[in-house]
């Protein structure tokens, strides 16, 4: 007689999943707000649309962390990738003038490690708290024949709100408008397939080795948290000081800035206005990567670009208090001219 099969024997531990889910309840409770109407265990999250707006428009976005997760797997450091996820999604709706309302996450694992689940979702909760965003719920799936041992994938979904009259859609951008850059906190969540190849194959480092030019390990440098720009930029949005914004993610400045410019307009970016961080210099040198390719793959130290009217540039830079710099200007034409990059 054949041995009786069980789900656990096939690789899915329902008891562990239930324990992990219960352990997440305090995280969800701590990152709720007065508009959160549901709790852990509900099939769908309930959230009341905030009042006080004449024409509220919901803005949604979804994203992942990409192969940055491979560094988390190798180093056993799982507490920050959730913050990366939240901050990336928040930035993506911020550029349209929206503030985040709530967030949901999707975590798919091979073998479910309750400690890893807690660390990852703890990072998501921390990111939500820092962005004043409710963690409304999510899903944790065990897929042992899909992901290898110790591996998982992580995705997130954010919903925010903006007054219809305050939507940033680039329609007010004009030739002559100024570009103001905000610094990144390293690689953020893009370009990691190339970065990992250079660091672990070309440079021959392990996650615990010191990173050249840094008082930190390779893992610490690569896992630096993707910055959220909400706190920095929101006062400027409230004042109506910004005409458009571009979140510099995959594709770099050239791939993202044109997305927020009207047809017939391009941009001139003066690359002499800043010095890319050490991590970018090391990657370029060790990998023998051409400068043009570096700027196409990585953010190169520019995480967010604000488009402002010329008469507002001085006030915006003053409000940023040294956290931003004059990057260039909007010009007639198409595409982005990266001055100083061969």
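Sequence proposed for the structure above (342 residues):
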């Amino acid at each position: 007689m054949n041995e009786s099969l069980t789900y656990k024997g096939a690789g899915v531990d329902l008891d562990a999943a239930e324990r992990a889910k219960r352990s997440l309840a305090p995280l969800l409770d701590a990152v709720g707000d007065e508009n959160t109407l549901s709790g852990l265990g509900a099939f769908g999250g309930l959230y009341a649309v905030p009042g006080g707006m004449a024409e509220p428009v919901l803005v949604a976005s979804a994203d992942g962390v990409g192969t940055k997760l491979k560094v988390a797997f190798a180093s056993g450091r799982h507490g920050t990738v959730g913050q990366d996820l939240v901050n990336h999604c928040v930035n993506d709706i911020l550029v349209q003038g929206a503030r985040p309302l709530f967030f949901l996450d999707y975590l798919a694992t091979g073998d479910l490690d309750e400690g890893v689940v807690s660390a990852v979702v703890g990072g998501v909760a921390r990111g939500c708290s820092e962005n004043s965003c409710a963690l409304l719920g999510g899903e944790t799936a065990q897929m042992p024949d899909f992901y290898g041992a110790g591996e998982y994938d992580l995705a997130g979904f954010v919903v925010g709100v903006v007054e219809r009259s305050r939507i940033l859609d680039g329609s007010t951008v004009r030739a002559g408008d100024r570009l103001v850059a905000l610094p990144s906190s390293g690689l953020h969540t893009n370009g990691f397939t190339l970065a990992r190849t250079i660091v672990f194959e070309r440079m021959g480092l392990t996650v615990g080795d010191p990173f050249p030019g840094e008082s930190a390990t390779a893992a610490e440098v690569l896992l630096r948290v993707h910055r959220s720009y909400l706190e920095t930029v929101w006062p400027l949005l409230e004042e109506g000081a910004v005409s458009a914004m571009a979140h510099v993610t995959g594709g770099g400045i050239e791939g993202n800035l044109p997305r927020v410019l009207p047809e017939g307009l391009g941009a001139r970016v003066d690359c002499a206005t800043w010095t890319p961080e050490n991590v970018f210099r090391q990657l370029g040198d060790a990998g023998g990567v051409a400068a043009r390719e570096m700027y196409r793959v990585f953010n190169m130290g520019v995480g967010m670009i604000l488009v402002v009217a010329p008469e507002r540039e001085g006030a915006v830079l003053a409000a940023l208090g040294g956290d931003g710099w004059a990057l260039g200007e909007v010009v007639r034409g198409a595409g982005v001219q990266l001055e100083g990059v061969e």
